[in-house]
Amino acid sequence: MRTQDQDLQVQSAEPAPAGARGGHLGLHLVPPLRINLQRLRPMAPDIAWAVFVGLNLAAMRLLTNWQTVPFLAIWVSLTVVYGFRLWRLQPTILTWAAVTLATGGIIWVQVLKGQQDADYLAEVPLIALMFLVMVWHGRRRLAATQERLTAMEQVQRISQENVRLLEQQRQFLQDASHELGTPITVALGHAELIERAATDQAVAADARVVTGELARLRRLTNRLLLLASAGTPDFLHLTQVPADSLVLDALERWGNIPRRWRLGEVAEATVRGDGDRLVAALDALLENAVAHTEPGDTIEVGVRLEGGNAVLAVADSGCGIPPTELDRIFRRFTRAQPSRSREAGGFGLGLSIVQAIAEAHHGSIRVRSTSGQGATFEMVIPAIPNALAS
């Protein structure tokens, strides 16, 4: 007490009255008491159960005619408390051993005194064994649940990491395409000026090569930017688009290329979609058809209704696609004939763009082909019924 008073006087600027010192001592004594109560509060059910067991053990000792009831009450209460508390293995075994010895000891003494039959003593190991089986089964189920939770957490972490990596990839493609766009355009403009102003044929030819490669690089950046933006909320600007007009306009744009162009079935169909994106997808299909055909080959364009969908089809009589390549041609940077596609200026992105645009419209892309006998690509887009379209 004297030491505490001295400490308080050192901390205080002026001596405190005796009543004040008593109040300070009370403040120092109360927190440890509260801390002890807070520590005991989680153990309250265990303490209550221990008191309950003690009362039932006393009842077994004193009420020999009714000792079965408190005996069973002890084991049932142990099972109930363990089900809610789920003690660790060591406390569980110690509690089980204590209850077994306590109940078995009382019954053993009563058997020795002739107050109980010896057969009654066999119930103790049987009930104790049942409790151990329950503990084993419960811990096994708990371990299995924890393994499943751990596996789910690991899968969730992997999924989140994949989403993060995909978002980084998409952002990188967008940033790279934007950053490359301006210098490519400037370089292309200067190369075109050099080509037009050059008097030396060798310089003009070199300038044409540079111009072609820069134009090809600009198309690549535009396609990468389109693929990177696929799936974003502003990827599509939806309106009512006549599918038959898309086909007719595409045939007019591409009709000057030396191929045998044919207009197939043209059904009146309206889709709800982005006209610019659908034009880009149809152009990609036509570019693919041109790249894999010769001047004498046929390319047919058409649109038909199939169920509730509009099917925009591009068929050619070119070299076709080997069966082993059909499952992978829609992957990015994949070419069915790499050398020929490279000579035609292809990147292996056209069909990936078509698939991305079709899926953004809740549609799909499909292909039928036989090697050496041409290919047919069909873009399936949900159509608007005529009554709603009108």
Describe the structure.
Helices cover 64% and strands 12% of the residues. By secondary structure, the chain is α+β, with helices and mostly antiparallel strands. It has a domain at 239-389: Heat Shock Protein 90 (2-Layer Sandwich). Strands 1, 2, 3, 4, 5, 6 and 7 form a seven-stranded mixed sheet that branches. It is elongated. The model is unreliable at 1-29 and 338-345 (pLDDT under 50).
Summarize the model shown.
With 390 residues, the protein is of the alpha+beta class. It contains 12 helices and 7 strands.
Features:
390 residues, alpha+beta, Heat Shock Protein 90, 7-stranded mixed sheet, 12 helices, disordered N terminus
Shape label: elongated
Largest sheet: 7 strands, mixed
Separate helix tally:
12
Q: Could you tell me how far the N terminus lies from the C terminus, measured between alpha carbons in angstroms?
A: 96 Å
* Beta-strand content: 5-15%
Per CATH, the architecture of one domain is 2-Layer Sandwich
What is CATH's topology name of one domain? Answer: Heat Shock Protein 90
CATH superfamily of one domain: Histidine kinase-like ATPase, C-terminal domain
- Which residues form runs of ≥5 with pLDDT under 50? 1-29, 338-345
CATH class of one domain: Alpha Beta
Helix content: 55-70%
Structural classification: alpha+beta
